[in-house]
Amino acid sequence: MKQFMSIRSQMSILMGITLFLMTSMLGLIIYQFEEISTAYQDTLSTLLMRTTSLQKSQDSFNQSITALHKYITYYDKKYAADTLKLLRQSQEAIQISGTAITASENTQPWITLQSAICTYQEDIQRSLPLQSADKPLSATSLLAAERNMDNAAALFAAARTAQNDFFQQRIDQLSAQRSAMFKIGVSFSVFTIITMLALFLWYSRQLNDHRNILEKLSFIDGLTNISNRRHFDEAINREWKHALTYNDFISIILIDIDFFKQYNDFYGHLQGDECLRTVANALKKSLARSGSMAARYGGEEFVILLPSTPQSEAVKVAEKIKEEIELLKIVHPLSNVHYYLTVSMGIAALRPKSTLNPTDLLAKADSMLYKAKKEGRNKIAVIEPNFPIRKSSHK
Fold first, then answer.
1. Nearest 5°: phi and psi at 366?
2. What is the pLDDT of residues 313-343, one digit of tens each?
3. In which element (H, E) is residue 114 found?
C-alpha cells in the first residue's frame, strides 16, 4: 500500500512539473506570437501613415506646379503665393513621412526628394514677384522652373518605390515569423497533448498494475501464501453460477489437520506456522486440474474447490492429498491416530439448482468432515444418499 501511494505521489509531482513546464513554454510561444503580430500591425500602420503623407506631399507639390503654371499664364500674384504655400505644405508632409524612416531602410531617395523640394521652394521664392514693385520673372525662366519642378515626379516615384520595397520585405519577414511561430505553437500544443496523454496512460497503467497487485495480495493468505477465505468465497460463487448455467458438477473438499492444537502447543507457534505452510504447499502440489483452488479456510482448516468435477474425481483428489501429506512425514508426538501428521477430509459434490446456494454445498462438506473426525480422523468421508446435513460448523 505504501508503494502504491508512493507511485501516486511521484506521478502527481511528475505530471505537475511537466504541466508547468509545458504551460510556461506554450505561454512563451504565445507571447512571441503576439509580439510578432503587434510588430506586424505597427508596420502596416507605419506604412499607411507614410503612404498617406507621401501622397499629400505629392498632391501639394502637383498643385504648386498647377499654381505656377497659372501664374505663368495670368501673371497674377495670387498664384505665386499659392505656389510657395503649396510647396511649404509639400515639404511639411514629406518631413512627416520621413520621421518614420528606420535605420535599416534606404534613405537616399527621401534625402534627394526633400532636398529637391527645398531647392524648388527657394528658387521659386527668389524668382516670383511677391511685392508690387517687383517685376515679373520672364516667361522663359518660369517655364524652365516649371520643367525643373516636373522632374520631381520621378523623385516621388523613386521614394515611393523604395518605401514599398522596404515595407514589403518587412511585411514578408514578419509574416514568415508569425507563420513559423504559429506552426511552432500548434506543434507544441499537439506535443503537449500527446505527452500529457502518454503520461496519463502510463500513470493509469501503473495504477492498474499496482491495483492488480494489491487485489492479488488481498486474495492471498499471508501465512501460507495460498488463496484466503475471501478469494475462495468469490471463486465458489463464480463457479456455482457457471455450473448452474451449464448443469455441471462442482465439488469441494474440507480439510482439517488432526490434533493441530496439540502440535502447536508442543512445538510452539513458529513451528506450527511452518507446519501450515508445508501442508498448504502439499495441497497445491496435489491439484493438477486447471481451475482448481486450494485455500486456507481458517485456522488449521483448508478447502479445495474443484469446478466441473463429480464426486468420484473429487475422491481421487482427496486420496492424492492424503498421500502427499503422508510423504511429508511431519512428526506429531501427540497425535492419537499416527506417529506423523495426518488430515481428515470431507467431500461434497452436486449439480447446482436454483433452490440451492454455495452454503448448502459447504454444509454438506462440513458434515462429511465432522463424520471423518468422529470416526477416528485420518479419514476421507463422502456424502451418502439421505445423509442428514449437520448445520453447525465443527471445530
1. -65, -40
2. 999 999 999 999 999 999 999 999 999 999 9
3. helix 108-127
